[in-house]
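### Sample
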Amino acid sequence: MRTDLAVIGAGPAGLAAALTAAAHGVRVTVVDAADQPGGQFFRQPAAELDARRPRALHHRWRTWERLRDALAASDVRVLTDHHVWFVEERSGAFTVHALLGPGQDEPVAVPADAVLLATGGYEHVLPFPGWTLPGVLTAGGAQAMLKGGLVVPGRAVVVAGTGPLLLPVATGLAAAGARVAALVESADPRQVARHARALAGKLPEGAGYAARLLRHRVRLLTRHTVVRAHGDDRLTGVTVAALDADGRVRRGTGRYIPCDTLAVGHGMLPHTDLADGLGCRLDGPAVAVDAEQRTSVPGVWAAGESTGVGGAALALAEGHIAGRSVASRLRGGTGPEPAGRTPAERTRETLRTSAEALAAAFAPPVHWTDQVTDDTLVCRCEEVTAGAVREAVDGLGAGDVRTVKLLTRAGMGWCQGRMCATAVAGLTGCEATPSRRPFARPVPLGVLARQQPEQPEQPQQPEPEQPERGSS
């Protein structure tokens, strides 16, 4: 069934865009990989778990209720468990290709007149000695286990890294019954204070999390970082150390904290695979958009974390703006009515300023690579060590990330470098440039074969007559 607008992603940005466009008469289809809408921010427990108080695990629960109820009352078609691997564009029309089924091997195509990319972001992962031990997971992974599975990853947890995500993860785990031994934040509080004006709107939320940390007696270590995870078959503890003003580990400050789980994260990165495949222009690591959230490719809009990480409230504002723009463009207009800045546009401007301040205040330690030993795995898929990556540059003369990839296979595995690309760039000193991939996820060869249009059968040509023997 053809649709006017295909929205890829059912998180805050995608739902806001879909509902806004549908309210203006646009036929909308939302395509998402999860089994129910909400995205990562509004991830819901499986229905089989029969959660009694799912709101206890969520921030902005009333916002989710409004989105959920509006979606149920709308004509928006929602396709869950659809894993999009490619968006095809031909003569201004689009086809969203997805995979279904337990093995993600059943192809589905959604034709559309326009596409909105609300693909969100993924965690920024930095390696350190011991980070591949069972019991070490990302901060977002721990939160997903708690929200989606009502499971705490361990009994004694250390939450570490940098960024605003660490606060809800630590408080959520503590409220769920885990003993959070420490919250290890590498940022300097003075750096956060320098951006106090831009972050003024975030202060009440931060104060609320701080109060909960005190209530659960969670030890807060600022300007500290995890330098090693310990254990043989699984995690038994971590060593943390203080950082100096330049972001280097201060000698003699290491301390051991016993734990069975480490939830570590260093912020988020925009998810741009589908945008790359369409040829959308990027602005740094994010999809470049104009004031209407339009990309450089006609007929393609983008909103949310894919255009720059800024949180759910910013994603909602961008989705609303994009939905209005899509409705106007598809209905023959030249753009949203020029009636001055809308509340969504004012919100977007304010929250983008806050997002830039957060990114500056919670940047990963500059010298994190100093603690990465040569035997530390960097690319887990292909089992490439930091020593092999360094040898590619120092010994073999690689001058960019792509050459390092060809020499070491770092980034050629299942995740296609999503987890290790920034780490490889940091270790080599090379610029982290996006890799243009034709597909956003692995695709069975049988599915690709079925994408080829069937060639019409050619009529058989009659064979030329053979002259009879003896004829001239």
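The two ends are 65 Å apart (CA to CA). This sample (NAD(P)/FAD-dependent oxidoreductase) is used throughout the tutorial notebook.
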